[in-house]
Structures are given as C-alpha cells and as structure tokens.
C-alpha cells in the first residue's frame, strides 16, 4: 500500500515536470493541439459523410457507428496521455540514458511507461468523455450494460497497457525497429470502426490474436447489448492473460539488455 | 552525376540496414490499405449500390490504386530534413560540393524505388487474396495523364516537406510539430489518401481545390479512373504544374532566408 | 564459496570468476550484403569478460584502466545491476546487483560521462526534487546533501536555469549532484572527465577525492585520462581483452613495467654522438642536451661509463614518464610484460 502511494507521488512529480516542459514550449503545444483536433475533426467529418451516403455500416446505424469511433478515441487518447513516454523510449535506449533509469530504486518499467504524461491529450479528454456520455445516452443502455461498458473499457486499457509493455520490451531486445509503437497505433486504428466490417480471417485475428476487437469493439457492443456472457468472459480472460504475458516479456527483455557502449 | 548515383546506392542500402524497420514500415502501409479496403467493401455491401457517384468496382480500384500512388508520392526520406536542421547535421552536407536539394531528391527516389518494389508485391498479394473488382485502365491518354500527374505530385510533396522543414531554421523545436500538422494530418485527409474527395459536398471540394493537396493523390487517381478527361485533364495538369512551380519558388525563398538566420546548434 | 562468505563481512564489492558474453550481429557491407543481412543474418558471440575476480574494501578508491573494449565499463555495469552476468558471482554490499533490490539501489550511484538524467527544458532543481522523491530522502538529509554538493561544485547560481542553456561543464556538475543527492555508499564512475576542459576536469577530480575522504564512499572509476589515474587512484586494476592483467598499487605498476630509465646528459663539448649508441638508445638530441634510454638494471653502470668516457657537464637519471607507461598499457603493449 505504501508502495502505491510512493508510485503515485513519483507519477505526480514526473507528470508535473512533463507538463512544465510542454508549457515552456507554448508554440509547439499549440501546433500539436491543433493537429490533434484537426485529425479528430477530419475523421469525424469523414465518418459523417460515409454514413450520410451509405445509411448504415455493417448493420450499425449512425449513432452506433459514431459511438464505436468515440470509444476508440477514448481508449486511444487516455492511453496516449498516460503512456506518452513509450514514444521516447528508443532514443532513451540508444543514447544509453536508460542505464540511469535502471540504477534508480523504482520500477524501470513504471518509469519507461508512465514517465511523461502528455498535457495535450489531457486537454482533449474532458470534451471526449462528454461526447461519449452524450452519444452513449442516445443509445439508451440499461444500468447493467453501462456497467459492463465501463468494466470492459478498463479491460481494454489493460490490453493497451500490455501492448505498450510489449513495445518497450521489443525495443530493448532488438534495436532494429524504430517507431514500433506506431505499428501498435496502426493496429488499433483498425478499431475506429466496428470490427464487423472486416471479413474472416482478419476479423478473427483482430478479435482473438491481436485483440483490437476486444479492446474497442467489445465494450461498445456491450453498451448496445450485443455481446454474450461468453464473449464477456473471454474478453476479460484475454485481458488478464495479455497483461501477465507482457510482464514476463519485460523481465526477459531486461536479461537481454546490452546497454549502449561508452 | 556519379556522386548522386552513389548517394542512391548508399540510401538504398541504408533502408535495408534496418531490415526489420523497413519491413515494419511496409506492414504499416499494408494495414492502412486493409483498413480502407474493408471499410469501403463494407459500405458497399449494404443495399446502396451507388454512393457519391461511385460503384463498388470504382471505389475498390481507387483503394488499390492508393497502394501504388502512395508508394510513389508519399514515401519520402526527406522527412529527415527537419531533424538534420535541428541537430545541426545539415552543416555537414552544406559544406560538401553537392546540392542539398538534389541530394535529398536522390535519397527520396531511392526510397521510393524500394517502396515501389515492395508496394507492387503487396499489390499482387492483396489482389490475389481479396480478389477485388479492379478496373484496368486501357486508354493511353488517361494513363499518360496519370503518370504525368504522379510525377508532378512527387515533386509537389517533396517541396512541401522542404518548406515545412524550413520552420526549423527559426524554431528548432517546432520542426516535428509542423511536420505532424501538415504532412501527417493535413496531407492524410486532404490529399485523397484515405477517401476519394468527391464524397464531400461540393462547397468543401471547391475550397480544397484551392490548395495543392488534392493534386497529390486524388487528382492522379481520378485521371487513372478516367473520371476526368479531355479539357479537364489538361486543366488539372496545368494547375498541378503551377503548384509545383509556385511551391518550388516559395521553397527557394524560404530556404535562402532560413539559411541566413540559421545558427547551427552543436552539443 | 566459503572464501566468498568470509570475505563478505569486510568487503564492499566481491567479484568471483565473472563471465559476460554478448550476442552481436555481423553486418556485411555493400548492397548485396544488405540483402544478405535480411535473409541470413550472422550472429557472433563477443566475450566481453572472460574470467574476472577481485574484491574491493569499503572506502577504497580503485581505478580501472585498459584499452578500448577491454571490459572496464561492462564490469561496472554488471556491478551496478544493469547487465546480466553470463556466469560467476558478483556481490555488492551483500546484494546481488542483478536483483536490483530497492535497498541496494538506494545505496549506490552510477555516473557516466555524457549520459543525462536532468530534464532538458527545466531547471536542475526540478530533477533534484524528483530524485528526492524517488530515493525517499528525508527532508533534512536532502537539504544538507544538496547544500554540501552545491557548495563543493560551485553551482549555486545555476540551479534555477533551464538545463538546456548551460554549458557541458556546468551540466555535468549538476548531473553529478543529481547522482549523489542520496549520499550513496558506492559510486561507479565511468569516464567522469570525458569531454571536459582541464579546469573542469580538476574540479571533478578534487570533488571525487574529497567525497571519498569525507563519506568513506567506495569508489570505482574507469578512465582513459592519465591525470585521473595519477591523481586519484592509488590502486589500479588493468583489464585487457576481458581479463585482469594487473591488480595493485599504481607505483608497483610503474615499477614493474618501466623497464627502462632515462639518462639526460648535458655535453660540455662536441663529440661523435654515434659513440653514445653503444651505451643505450639515443632518444633525443638537441645539442648540448642528449636523452638516452637504458635498461633499468644497468642504469647505474651506464651512468658511470658515460661519465668516464664522454665529455659530460651534467647527468641525471629519471624514471620513464608515467604518461608514456600508461599509454603503453592502453595500447596493449603490456600484454607480453604481464605474461606470468
């Protein structure tokens, strides 16, 4: 318990430093904020026009499709907010500064994962949450469905965390891949739409193997009452399994760490 | 000329040096296409057969066309330029008897060559797997217009990157930010790289045509599909060439000023 | 193992038959090679440490020297818990470094020449506060430690300036503070004076010396810089090709290796300098000064011979330049000398 407070305090201090860094570069902050808002607006607009023309997508109506999209954004942006530091990990390894992380008396995984909370993403979260609630309400979910949605959302975060830990681990094991985290982003981008639009076997892969479906589509479906008990249980199982595997991968990666030469 | 050939060779080899990295880059490209393909496939699986003037064959052709056109136009090594300016490495090349601009064009071409190679393979594989109704253009005028527009598009994109990277001369930290804004976000949506621009209402389309973006991907593909021909095609080529020239002149001016202001950082 | 147990009580650091191997991918050059690298990459085992054993007592200051790639930094990193040893026993303050227990990490520190932990866009004081929380340093101890370090390193005015605006020397001093706020018992220094000007180098060296004295901290440092070793380390360990080839007092190293003595002559009148070749190796001639190298054992006899047979106004016998000796060690020329 005491350790939990310790890590909360450290996270708070690191996030504070991260925010101060952003505020020291106001121009950059503005540029990125604009870019992210633009991206969201463009894609939302694109979605709007598609639905206007096609009337439905894979059997889902307009509010439903938008809700899928918003759920995707919620998970995507909260993950980026917390785990922005993962994008800076490879330079940390290449420069050798990771050594200085390893010699500190805290979890190097914690520091590498959460050491740089992103202020910009934080700014975009409240309006997003509002949008999720608004559109979600339009779909008239029951209490049970809402609770399931929230629980599966947390499960989605677990999976996202597992992915990020895997990215960190791979970055240690092989210096060959840069921008590995972008592959994760491309994979999860497939979840902007309900994964029912994908045909088999891709759909199966996205559901069970690289569980983008479990991460994003399933929570949204739960809200709409479209998921079975089986599906829920399997989803949680996948989430827990992945997070455990990712921890093992990290520890393995550290044994392979070879450290930049002086 | 010989020295640029060796630049080409080294650049080509460097792409391979990070083999996994390169493969991953191709995987990413494929995934993006897959997303777009299935999206449109799904859209057209409903009751509507013609949406925004497209039928399934034409839209799928558009998507498959994207694989090749994106490899031609949007794969650019020149995105490293901003970083070089920021880290002061640009000085190394400015001191050598090579034109910085030509150097990067060569590197770009080598990168595009490699990407094109892989894109073609991916195209074939995806074609065999997904079995799309692809429309093979046979009209030589359309094809000619297509290739000409693609060549212009490559140049426009290249110059655009140089212009955006130039902001690093004045604000070193802003380089990546502007790249993100313009190259990643704006280009992605406004060039037709994700969806054909004519699904948008005509008012918006008119505004977009005032920018160079549609001429990167959308316009060349329209030429291929035969949706613009004759006078419209010629007009399009002229406008595209106009953008190429204007942006090139703009770039030269900005870079001239930028180099004067530049005090290269060092550690 | 029994010996290790007994030694554990007094020794701060124990290393016993340490082995470390790395897996390295060999890259083939050229365009065709680039293709081959994708299809069939070649992996090789690099033996960084072959069989290293030594112990360090509490409060000792030990210098590691050796040619590039000899294994000095690898040893340090294993002791700091960064690298996973392939075989052998390592023990620091009774802990296994690899386990990286919190208790262990709070008592050690690793300082590496040009590696950074200070947040770039913020004043150093922000990083210090962060480290205080990370190391759970009590407020009073933190204040004292900070004050002591800031005064010793003369950085009072720099604490609130953005780190990116400072010079390399200033940054390194602040990095040093960040690394020592928690008053570690064991310090690992990897090339601490790398890239610094002479004045800054001396400041760092004096600081390390004072720290060692004041806190009885055990210090291991690696360096290429001759001055670091001469002025700091009494005991040196020479590593070459992953093996220790000397472990002892610096003076002993010099004595054992300095095979020659240097005789400096001032001639009183012109003479046939070729005659001097019979006595020893003529190294330098700038009339009337001459420098001859003779074997250590025969130095006295040679001097007598010279005084007798040649017109000499002045003669001195000197030890070989320490820098030259150590330079030879770095270049691996000592390998033959140390074959036992």
Please describe what this structure looks like.
The complex is a heterotrimer of chains A (262), B (267) and C (340). Chain A contains twelve helices and no strands. Helix content of chain A is 76%, strand content 0%. Chain A is globular, with a radius of gyration of 19 Å. Chain A is mostly helical and 262 residues long. Chain B has 267 residues and is mostly helical. Chain B has one domain. In chain B, 73% of the residues lie in helices and 0% in strands. Chain B contains twelve helices and no strands. The longest helix of chain B has 31 residues. Chain B is globular and about 60 Å long. The mean pLDDT of chain B is 82. Chain C is an alpha/beta fold and 340 residues long. Chain C folds into two domains: 226 residues, P-loop containing nucleotide triphosphate hydrolases (Rossmann fold), CATH 3.40.50.300; 60 residues, 2-Layer Sandwich (Alpha-Beta Plaits). In chain C, α5 packs parallel to α7 and α6 runs antiparallel to α7. The radius of gyration of chain C is 25 Å and the shape is globular. The model of chain C has no long low-confidence stretch (mean pLDDT 83). Chains in contact: A-B, A-C, B-C. At the A-B interface, α2 and α9 of A face α2 and α9 of B.
């Amino acid at each position: 318990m005491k350790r939990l407070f310790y890590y909360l305090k450290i996270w708070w201090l690191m996030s504070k430093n991260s925010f101060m860094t952003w505020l020291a570069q106001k121009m950059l902050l503005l540029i990125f904020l604009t870019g992210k808002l633009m991206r969201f607006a463009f894609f939302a607009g694109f979605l709007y026009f598609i639905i206007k023309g096609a009337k439905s997508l894979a059997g889902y109506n307009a509010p439903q499709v938008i809700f899928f999209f918003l759920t995707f954004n919620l998970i995507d942006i909260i993950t980026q907010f917390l785990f922005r530091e993962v994008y800076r990990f490879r330079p940390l390894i290449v420069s050798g500064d990771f050594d200085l992380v390893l010699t500190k008396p805290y979890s190097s995984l914690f520091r590498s994962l959460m050491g740089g909370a992103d202020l910009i993403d934080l700014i975009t979260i409240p309006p997003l949450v509002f949008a999720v609630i608004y559109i979600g309400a339009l779909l008239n979910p029951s209490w049970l469905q809402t609770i399931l949605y929230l629980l599966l959302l947390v499960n989605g975060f677990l999976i996202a965390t597992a992915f990020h830990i895997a990215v960190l681990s791979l970055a240690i094991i092989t210096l060959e891949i840069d921008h590995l985290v972008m592959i994760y982003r491309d994979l999860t981008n497939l979840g902007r739409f309900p994964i029912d639009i994908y045909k088999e076997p891709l759909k199966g892969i996205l559901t069970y193997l690289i569980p983008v479906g479990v991460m994003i589509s399933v929570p949204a479906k739960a809200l709409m009452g479209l998921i079975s008990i089986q599906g829920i249980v399997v989803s949680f199982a996948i989430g827990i399994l992945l997070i455990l595997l990712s921890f093992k991968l990290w520890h393995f990666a550290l044994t392979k760490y070879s450290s930049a030469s002086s | 000329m010989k020295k640029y050939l060796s630049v080409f060779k080294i650049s080509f080899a460097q792409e391979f040096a990070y083999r996994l990295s390169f493969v991953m880059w191709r995987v990413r490209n494929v995934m993006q296409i897959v997303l777009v393909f299935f999206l449109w496939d799904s859209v057209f699986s409903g009751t509507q057969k013609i949406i925004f003037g497209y039928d399934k064959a034409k839209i799928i052709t558009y998507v498959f066309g994207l694989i090749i056109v994106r490899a031609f136009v949007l794969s650019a090594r020149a995105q490293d330029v901003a970083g070089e300016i920021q880290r002061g490495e640009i000085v190394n090349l400015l001191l050598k008897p090579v034109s910085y601009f030509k150097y990067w064009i060569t590197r770009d071409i080598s990168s595009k060559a490699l990407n094109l190679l892989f894109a073609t393979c991916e195209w074939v594989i995806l074609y065999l797997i997904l079995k799309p109704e692809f429309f093979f253009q046979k009209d030589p005028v359309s094809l000619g217009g297509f290739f000409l527009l693609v060549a212009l598009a490559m140049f426009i994109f290249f110059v655009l990157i140089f212009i955006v990277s130039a902001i690093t001369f004045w604000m070193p930290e802003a380089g990546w930010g502007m790249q993100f804004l313009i190259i990643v976000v704006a280009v992605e949506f406004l060039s037709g790289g994700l969806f054909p621009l004519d699904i948008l209402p005509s008012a918006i389309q008119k505004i977009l045509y005032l920018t160079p973006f549609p001429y990167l991907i959308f316009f060349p593909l329209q030429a291929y599909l035969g949706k613009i021909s004759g006078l419209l095609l010629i007009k399009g080529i002229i406008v595209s060439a106009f953008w190429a020239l204007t942006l090139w002149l703009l770039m030269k001016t900005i870079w001239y000023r930028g180099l004067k202001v530049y005090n290269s950082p060092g550690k | 193992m029994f010996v290790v147990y007994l030694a554990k009580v007094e020794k701060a650091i124990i290393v016993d038959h340490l082995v470390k191997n790395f897996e390295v991918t060999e890259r083939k050059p050229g365009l065709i090679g680039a293709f081959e690298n994708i299809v069939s990459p070649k992996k090789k085992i690099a033996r960084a440490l072959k069989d290293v054993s030594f112990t360090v007592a509490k409060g000792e200051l030990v210098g590691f020297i050796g040619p590039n790639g000899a294994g000095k930094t690898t040893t340090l990193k294993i002791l700091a818990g960064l690298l996973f040893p392939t075989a052998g026993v390592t023990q620091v303050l009774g802990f296994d470094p690899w386990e990286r227990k919190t208790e262990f990490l709070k008592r050690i520190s690793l300082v590496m020449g040009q590696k950074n932990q200070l947040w770039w866009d913020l004043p150093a004081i922000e990083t210090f506060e962060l480290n205080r929380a990370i190391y759970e340093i009590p407020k009073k101890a933190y204040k004292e430690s900070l004050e002591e370090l800031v005064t010793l390193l003369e950085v009072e005015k720099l604490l609130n300036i953005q780190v990116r605006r400072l010079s390399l020397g200033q940054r390194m001093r602040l990095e040093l503070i960040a690394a020592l706020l928690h008053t570690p018992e064991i310090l690992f220094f990897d090339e601490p004076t790398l890239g610094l000007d002479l004045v800054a180098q001396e400041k760092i060296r004096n600081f390390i010396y004072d720290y060692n004295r004041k806190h009885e901290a055990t210090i291991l440092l690696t360096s290429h810089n001759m001055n670091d070793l001469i002025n700091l380390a009494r005991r040196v360990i020479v590593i070459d090709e992953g093996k220790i080839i000397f472990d002892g007092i610096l003076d002993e190293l010099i004595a054992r290796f300095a095979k020659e003595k240097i005789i400096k002559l001032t001639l009183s009148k012109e003479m046939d300098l070729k005659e001097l070749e019979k006595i020893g190796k003529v190294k330098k001639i700038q009339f009337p000064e001459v420098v001859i190298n003779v074997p250590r054992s025969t130095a006295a006899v040679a001097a007598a011979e010279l005084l007798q047979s040649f017109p000499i106004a002045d003669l001195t016998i000197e030890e070989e330049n320490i820098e030259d000796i150590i330079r030879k060690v770095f270049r691996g020329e000592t390998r033959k000398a140390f074959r036992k």
